[in-house]
Design brief:
Radius of gyration: 35 Å
Number of domains: 3
Strand order of the largest sheet: 1-2
Helix content: over 70%
Structural class: mainly alpha
Oligomer: single chain
Largest sheet: 2 strands, antiparallel
Shape: elongated
Number of strands: 2
Order of helices and strands: HHEEHHHHHHHHH
């Protein structure tokens, strides 16, 4: 195969030389059209012969190696992988911390990251390397679920306080008044305690389930046993989706749809109302 390639190269080189001589001759005889044609043939032939012999081209600050040993090719691939990892890390950091006001949706952001994951897979980035890249995104998903949970709890507290006040106005009874005062006495210290809860710091070293447990009022507090059981079911739902996201290294389709549905304030109230009705 090498001998055939050499013979072809010699033939093309000879034809190129004859084309160059012909172009010069025709140019001296004012035959511009044929001179240009022969000159073009010379250039094409020269490129066919010349380019395979080039070690590298360097222009405008870009170096492209055209002939490489196996070792050089592997080194180049490693460099490309490294660049891809750095780019992916930057993308995960940017998307994890950017646009925290609700746009774009979790579903849209995860779609972009899924495309990046496909590139990483093509470049043979290992699961261990990818785990480092997606770590900030997985951490932010965990935080998203916690803050969703805490907002629903706050909405539930407002709903319960309003219900107790409404009962006072409706019944004008001592029992209703005492129930409202008891609720106020129980929820006030909890509100003060959780106003500076430091969820992000806790989530760095603890599971979502543990941090939610630390956030919730203790048994016998402002939530009844039945209400606590209802919130436990809600917690388990979020923990399950978060665990699935951690395994994937990003939002699952189910988790993205769920979070996008309940991330707005009105949706928080909707979820709180759902839990309120379930605990009655």
């Amino acid at each position: 195969m090498d001998k055939v390639r050499d013979i072809f190269s010699y033939f093309v080189a000879a034809m190129s030389i004859f084309a160059m001589l012909g172009a010069v001759y025709q140019a001296f005889n004012d035959q511009k059209a044929s001179a240009v044609t022969l000159g073009t043939i010379f250039l094409v032939g020269a490129l066919i012969v010349f380019l395979p012999q080039v070690e590298f081209i360097k222009t405008l600050g870009v170096e492209a190696r055209l002939r490489q040993t196996v070792t050089e090719a592997v080194a180049t691939l490693a460099s490309v992988r490294r660049l891809a990892e750095i780019s992916a890390r930057a993308s995960y950091l940017t998307i994890a911390w950017g646009n925290r006001l609700g746009t774009p949706s979790a579903k849209d952001k995860q779609s972009v990251l899924d495309d990046i994951d496909a590139q990483l897979s093509d470049l043979k980035v290992t699961p261990e390397e990818r785990a480092i890249i997606v770590k900030p995104w997985v951490a932010m998903i965990r935080a998203d679920f916690f803050f969703l949970y805490s907002r629903v709890v706050r909405e539930f507290a407002t709903m319960k306080a309003s219900d107790l006040t409404a009962k006072i106005h409706a019944t004008q009874s001592r029992e209703a008044h005492d129930a409202s005062m008891t609720h106020s006495d129980l929820i006030t210290p909890w509100s003060n305690q959780t106003s500076k809860f430091g969820a992000m710091e806790r989530l760095e070293t603890k599971t979502l389930s543990t941090v939610i447990n630390e956030y919730m009022p203790a048994k016998g507090g402002w939530l009844s046993d039945k209400e606590l059981a209802t919130f436990e079911t809600f917690k388990q739902e979020l923990v399950r989706m978060n665990d699935d996201c951690a395994k994937k290294g990003g939002y699952t389709a189910e988790a993205a749809d769920y979070y996008d549905r309940y991330k707005e304030r009105e949706a928080d109230r909707e979820k709180a109302k759902e839990l309120w009705e379930a605990s009655r």
